[in-house]
């Protein structure tokens, strides 16, 4: 099993979905890093989009998982090829989250620091149950 940890910003609000009567939550996270191109000297930013799925988010944290929110994600990594709308093969990066934490910041409603997290390490997801 491959485990991964990422910090990034939500690209969309978290969505609640149901598959075969089971509720789960999905969202996408953009994780970026910068480096200096040795040949040109320019600063290059590369962004990787990661699809996140979790069956165990609390309603308390779910309300804060909005577009632009910075989060820490820990879970099982899966890399899969898929065909896009353009008909070309792409590589999808997916994480089945065991832990989701907000990385601070101010809530628009409360102007207070947000440090809520959901740790779901006790709740294992079987490989065959994934909605990817």
From TrEMBL:
<dbReference type="InterPro" id="IPR011344">
    <property type="entry name" value="ssDNA-bd"/>
</dbReference>
<feature type="compositionally biased region" description="Low complexity">
    <location>
        <begin position="112"/>
        <end position="123"/>
    </location>
</feature>
<dbReference type="GO" id="GO:0003697">
    <property type="term" value="F:single-stranded DNA binding"/>
</dbReference>
<dbReference type="InterPro" id="IPR000424">
    <property type="entry name" value="Primosome_PriB/ssb"/>
</dbReference>
<dbReference type="Pfam" id="PF00436">
    <property type="entry name" value="SSB"/>
</dbReference>
<dbReference type="GO" id="GO:0006260">
    <property type="term" value="P:DNA replication"/>
</dbReference>
<protein>
    <recommendedName>
        <fullName>Single-stranded DNA-binding protein</fullName>
    </recommendedName>
</protein>
<keyword id="KW-0238">DNA-binding</keyword>
<feature type="region of interest" description="Disordered">
    <location>
        <begin position="104"/>
        <end position="132"/>
    </location>
</feature>
<dbReference type="InterPro" id="IPR012340">
    <property type="entry name" value="NA-bd_OB-fold"/>
</dbReference>
């Amino acid at each position: 099993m491959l485990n991964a940890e990422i910090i990034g910003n939500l690209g969309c609000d978290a969505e609640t979905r149901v598959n075969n009567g089971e509720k789960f939550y999905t969202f996408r996270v953009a994780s970026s890093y910068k480096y200096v191109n040795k040949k040109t000297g320019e600063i290059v930013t590369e962004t990787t989009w990661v699809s996140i799925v979790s069956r165990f988010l609390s309603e308390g944290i779910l309300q804060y998982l909005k577009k632009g929110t910075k989060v820490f994600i820990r879970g099982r990594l899966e890399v899969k090829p898929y065909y896009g709308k353009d008909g070309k093969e792409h590589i999808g990066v997916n994480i089945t989250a065991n832990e989701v934490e907000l990385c601070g910041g101010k809530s628009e409603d409360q102007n207070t620091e947000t440090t809520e997290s959901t740790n779901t390490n006790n709740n294992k997801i079987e490989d065959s149950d994934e909605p990817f």
